[in-house]
Target: Glutathione S-transferase
Amino acid sequence: MKEMTLYSMPSSGNSYKVRLLLALIGRDCAIVDVEDSSPEIAAAKAAGRLPFGKAPVLELADGRLLPESNAILMWLGQGTAFIPGDAYQQAEMLSWMFWEQNQHEGVIAVRGALLFYPSRKTLATPERLAELLERGYGLLQILEDRLAGRDWLVGESLSLADLALYGYTHTAGSRGQYDMSRFPAINRWCDRIAALPGYIGLYD
Amino acid sequence: MKEMTLYSMPSSGNSYKVRLLLALIGRDCAIVDVEDSSPEIAAAKAAGRLPFGKAPVLELADGRLLPESNAILMWLGQGTAFIPGDAYQQAEMLSWMFWEQNQHEGVIAVRGALLFYPSRKTLATPERLAELLERGYGLLQILEDRLAGRDWLVGESLSLADLALYGYTHTAGSRGQYDMSRFPAINRWCDRIAALPGYIGLYD
Model:
């Protein structure tokens, strides 16, 4: 019997975060692919499965829905080592996760999307791309400074904050055309995550 | 002896959320005002008190820092009735809080800021304001639909999700010039929050 279903956009870093956590903790989940601008995502919206109009959404076995990638990480991460036991470290983890959704995603992922999805080409003006490039370098520098001299964003081991930030950071170079040679600590951190047992890539 | 210090931007909904929670739970906290573009916010940044370059930031009694409004709400809310005991309701609460930071704040608060802060006037082009108006109505409709027929966003009582969303929603009309007469359920919910024992307004 299937336990739960993830409505997942294959090309999206937000959906990938959740698939990566599922792989790392070895948890089964049915996946419904709802790619950007596809009939499948339109059908899922029409069926009321995407409460905020976007993926990912986790549907529990009893039909209850949970939208928002980082809220899904928190739900699936309960009882795993990826949520620190220490109260302050847990709060720090949430700080990084809210920063990811409020600052990082709206710049790094957005520039990547403008360059990646043909449907967004008309929005990809030179001015907009330049603004996102400059702001993105500022945000990546915050991440770089944090990771200089430490392996993980919070505490001494991988937490949900690392997975949340990895989702779009690891394609900042390939999709967003940020010059990632400026950020050696980020690159080493990406390598550490890609070496984790059970790791899957964005398109695995 | 002071327990903790909040670096708070007086005019900001993100900072106000935290001050409102402190007032509702009757918890003392020193407040350092760091208004937008002020010498005080520059000094706090230079002193390393604003890790992500913005307010609010909670400084614990031992000097540890916690940025991000909704992470601060989660920290201060521990052990209060504003975090549901039920695991799914807690996850739902976080869904709304991440949605607030990822979708709602970047539209409702941003349009309000463009119209409110003289320093942002040059960014307030008619095209940008019109785009934020249209997207904002879509986001407010999601909130309206959720609140139709229920008193609070999650479960049967006030949670941190209500405070997080109230921060910028309650000035969407006055600052953002959204026509709030379209959203009667939101207006009733705002009235319920303003009637809570201990409530303070944005400038109280």
